[in-house]
Amino acid sequence: MLKAGVLGAGHLGKIHLRLLNQSDKYELVGFYDPDKDNAKKIVEEFGYTYFDTIEGLIEAVDVVDIVTPTLSHYECAVKAINKKKHVFLEKPISNTVEEAESIIKLATENKVKGQVGHVERFNPAFTAVNEKINTPMFIEAHRLAEFNPRGTDVPVVLDLMIHDIDAILSVVNSKVKHISASGVAVISHSPDIANARLVFENGCVANLTASRISLKNMRKSRFFQKDAYIAVDFLEKKVEVVKMKDAPQVPGDFDMILQNAEGERKQIYFENPDIDANNAILDELETFADAIENDTTPVVTLEQGTEALRVAKGIIEAFDKN
């Protein structure tokens, strides 16, 4: 069982504390938070052990779970990795691509593992179909959220859209060739609504929209490929898979048959993959434990987290060009 400690006990940090405490793969040693009043409340309510320094917590654990504001990810990761501790970093991996690349280099030198908290990779709707997503050529993603002051210190791209960026990069086996984007600041000092168009070297195009000032929540992505249309509802945890195959010589009464101008006939049919209920945050933490114990590659590597950040920063840079 791996000894784990949490840096940062805000909204998400408290969730990580609870899940690590109930996990069979970790022993929760304690946490550090600079807000001593908040830390005191957590100790009184849950009984978790509080460390009054980051260094003290790092020394006491095998795995450091970094759930602090993004600006401090790099500093916390460096302290942990230099003590040869494995690191789990909430998304985005860090504030800059240069910091992220430095984290990768340090982790390699110190022979420790790292994983980035792109939790939608563990969403049961996405995991039910991700192996069916094969060379998509057009992708459309919408991630809309009602206004919440938490997270508005960063552009909506780093707050919300980066979830879809990572998911898309994980299924498109090609590099991003061109980025165009526009963003509008409505309530915050950084964009609250954004739209981006990613063009990949293999010809795939992805349109992404994110908003944190919507009237309702929505997290949907649609993947179009040669033989299928796949829709993923990350919020409702539902999927829709529509596929095509050559039409039978003698179709059934209820078969859906399409014929193109060249006379080719295709049959449309539906698949309903099983979706297993899960706790995605617990799954991402426990698969990281498995990667450490079995010396395998984490599901979301530091390199993948860095690439998602690189594309997100490219989108933000494209705002200025427009």
UniProtKB/TrEMBL annotation:
InterPro entries: Gfo/Idh/MocA-like_OxRdtase_N (IPR000683), Gfo/Idh/MocA_Oxidoreductases (IPR051450), GFO_IDH_MocA-like_dom (IPR055170), NAD(P)-bd_dom_sf (IPR036291)
Pfam families in the cross-refs: GFO_IDH_MocA, GFO_IDH_MocA_C3
Boundaries of every Gfo/Idh/MocA-like oxidoreductase N-terminal domain copy: 3-118
GO MF annotation: an example: nucleotide binding
Residue ranges annotated for the GFO/IDH/MocA-like oxidoreductase domain, each copy included: 156-216
Classification via PANTHER family: BILIVERDIN REDUCTASE A (PTHR43377)
Protein's recorded name: Oxidoreductase
Gene source species: Neptunitalea chrysea
